[in-house]
DNA sequence: CCACTTTGTTTGTTCTTTTTACTAACTGAA
DNA sequence: TTCAGTTAGTAAAAAGAACAAACAAAGTGG
């Protein structure tokens, strides 16, 4: 994705109006139930400006009016909410073990979802299947009859910044794939915003963007699956995903934790992925690729060999988390990915190391919250859908 | 520093005007010699709007008109430049071994500078001395009679985001110091913008901000001195420094490179600083704190023990650089700090490891440029001055 | 010398927010 | 019940900023 404006930012009157409409919509999205007066106070705009902006957003179906609020000695305000009936956002994740699809509302509520197992195959075959599944999803009852705002795809590898190219997906065996171009012929009638992004970055974005109430200043999502990657999203106002000049930001699986350690598939030695990742655990325990790693391991958790392997991986994960803390210091860390299903034997050593060491430097009790996701299945797909919405609200298009 | 606006961003007409004035000024700053027509084309504004904005910036002394440009078949445009005669920016770095002060123009040209050696002492004594030196600097010939826009201070430790508190400076023995408050009584007549930031972050900012021509999308400055820290600045439009929720972003000296390794002063084991930093080199070679590390080592570079120590430190530095590449992927890395004076024995292993491994993952020839600073003496101080200018141009104040 | 091109300014228009005044709707006390 | 006080939202005129178009200025090139 990325709506980077390389040129220097100046603005005309149209830009200003759009900015204010975006601000109003974002405020209502993040704090459902705000009144016009609340918005005017928070945004430092006059009641008249807010009133006009709200009116046009109501007319276009982005907002709806709710109930009257309790009065505090004067005329009660009218609550404003997102109109969640009219639009739908599509998101999909192409994972190593399958496809995950979601259709969700403007607030991120999942209307329909689908999880299709799939062994790695060519981009073309994957795109065709995904196209069919998305087509089917769009015709399910709760999705049908809604206007689709666009489609976001999350992919397991670095994306070229500025152009929709998946540079590399080692666990799929893909390289330099323009996945949207492959998908488009299978969904000729789906218009709106199309975008693609790295899986962990989409997940990070969605975890921050679809949250209501107090929004953290930044959030880092760590995705531990076949490989290990991360996404950092920053800025409570307009959340931006850090991509890096080659899209390599967040490739923490290839940060070196053990100089002179095992060889990684990237050719370097001692990468984090050689210590903690689906494939390193497989390698350590001799589990074949055909078997589902998690399903194979869950019944074997009592075995000492498994426990030792997972504890070592967990310790490496803890170091990885601490290193992220000391190099980027996110407001919050969210840990997801399929490996989280392995539970305590993997996670306890990681969490313990992180908690133990994160406050050493400053010596204050203030802790950075680290949350382990309960069910990571649709997080990246939902995050990609969130990115679609954000690019419409903040992007250059005049869709609203 | 940090002019973070927590609230949601909307704007009025005044804001729009200011935005456009900022854009014009920034464009001229970054590309000296632009004409009004160039600006109008690049910024997507009309000639009339640009003309009015330029006129007011000329009247206020921020810009000056230069020579006529070569005609390309029509009326030649009038080149615009920053007016560097009127203002001065002050910057200072409080380092472990002394104070560095600069006074520079809007374009970052150093008008006067001073380097004062000083053994670590209390914040109060340091502030008093710095106040005197700054006072003297302001009365040097090239600085005198200029209007001072403000003062930026770079400090060797993490700063609380949002408030001007140095949380910790282990190598000075300071903790929770409101340094600006200590300094202010000694410079009662210096008004303008006062700010403080971490030394590596100031340096990173200055390295990007005072560059003209093509600006990298992001830049990471790695400062290798008594400790080791980094600063990441992103956004070619409005460059922002990543700080993190506790100001710990960039504390790469405490990322763990060697699990179970040596104990660090932070209490954890295997931190990067135990492998590469001024203090770890001292420890490895038994050099007392009273001696100047670099001056002591330079005559001893032929000794095998020194060579081995520096090579090992260099290898760790290379890993650190590669880890930054794979976790944040800056457009450019700049390596500075006093240790760079040790030259090839330290730097060659680092650069070699980095060049060798940075393209493994994507397999493309595209390299991220890594530049070693020739003279890092005033880089952080000058960067702090740059931050003053940026906070005036982009910040909330109405100074221009 | 003249047609043509490009720069920069002037003038009046358009667009957006602001100001001010007003209506609406509720609280609480007389 | 009434009425002063308070807060929410709207309407119309006013102000401010950018815009469009015409124009003046200053070159080029035949």
From TrEMBL, chains A, B:
The entry assigns this protein to a family as follows:
Belongs to the ROK (NagC/XylR) family.
Source domain of life: Bacteria
| TM region positions | none
- Give the matching SUPFAM superfamilies: Actin-like ATPase domain, Winged helix' DNA-binding domain
Gene3D superfamilies per record: 3.30.420.40, Winged helix-like DNA-binding domain superfamily/Winged helix DNA-binding domain
What Pfam families does the database record attribute to this sequence?
Answer: ROK
Which organism encodes this protein?
Answer: Billgrantia kenyensis
Q: What is this protein identified as?
A: ROK family protein
């Amino acid at each position: 994705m990325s709506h980077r404006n390389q040129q220097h930012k100046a603005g005309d009157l149209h830009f200003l109006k759009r900015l204010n409409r975006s601000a109003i919509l974002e405020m209502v999205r993040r704090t459902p139930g705000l009144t016009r007066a609340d918005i005017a106070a928070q945004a430092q705009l006059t009641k008249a400006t807010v009133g006009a902006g709200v009116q046009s957003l109501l007319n276009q179906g982005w907002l709806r009016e709710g109930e009257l609020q309790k009065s505090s000695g004067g005329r009660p305000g009218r609550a404003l909410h997102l109109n969640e009936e009219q639009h739908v956002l599509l998101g999909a994740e192409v994972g190593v073990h399958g496809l995950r699809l979601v259709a969700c509302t403007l607030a991120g509520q999942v209307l329909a979802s689908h999880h299709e197992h799939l062994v790695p195959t060519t981009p073309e075959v994957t795109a065709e299947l995904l196209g069919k599944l998305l087509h089917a999803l769009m015709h399910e009852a709760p999705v049908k009859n809604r206007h689709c705002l666009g489609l976001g795809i999350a992919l397991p590898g670095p994306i070229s910044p500025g152009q929709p190219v998946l540079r590399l997906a080692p666990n799929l065996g893909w390289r330099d794939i323009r996945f949207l171009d492959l998908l488009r012929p299978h969904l000729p009638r789906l218009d709106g915003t199309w975008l693609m992004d790295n899986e962990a970055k989409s997940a990070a974005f969605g975890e921050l963007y679809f949250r209501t109430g107090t929004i953290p200043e930044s959030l880092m999502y760590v995705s531990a699956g076949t490989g290990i990657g991360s996404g950092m999203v920053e800025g409570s106002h307009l959340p931006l995903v850090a991509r890096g000049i080659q899209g390599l930001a967040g490739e923490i699986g290839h940060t070196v934790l053990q100089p002179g350690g095992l060889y990684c598939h990237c050719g370097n030695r001692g990468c984090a992925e050689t210590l903690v990742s689906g494939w390193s655990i497989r390698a350590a325990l001799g589990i074949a690729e055909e078997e589902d790693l998690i399903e194979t391991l869950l019944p074997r958790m009592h075995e000492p060999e498994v426990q030792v392997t997972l504890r070592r991986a967990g310790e490496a994960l803890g170091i990885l988390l601490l290193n992220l803390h000391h190099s980027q210091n996110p407001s919050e860390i969210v840990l997801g990915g399929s490996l989280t299903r392995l539970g305590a034997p993997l996670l306890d050593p990681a969490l313990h190391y992180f908690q133990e060491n994160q406050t050493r430097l400053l010596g204050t009790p203030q802790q950075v919250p680290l949350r382990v996701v309960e069910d990571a299945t649709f997080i990246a797909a939902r995050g990609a859908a969130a990115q679609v919405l954000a690019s419409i609200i903040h992007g250059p298009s005049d869709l609203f």
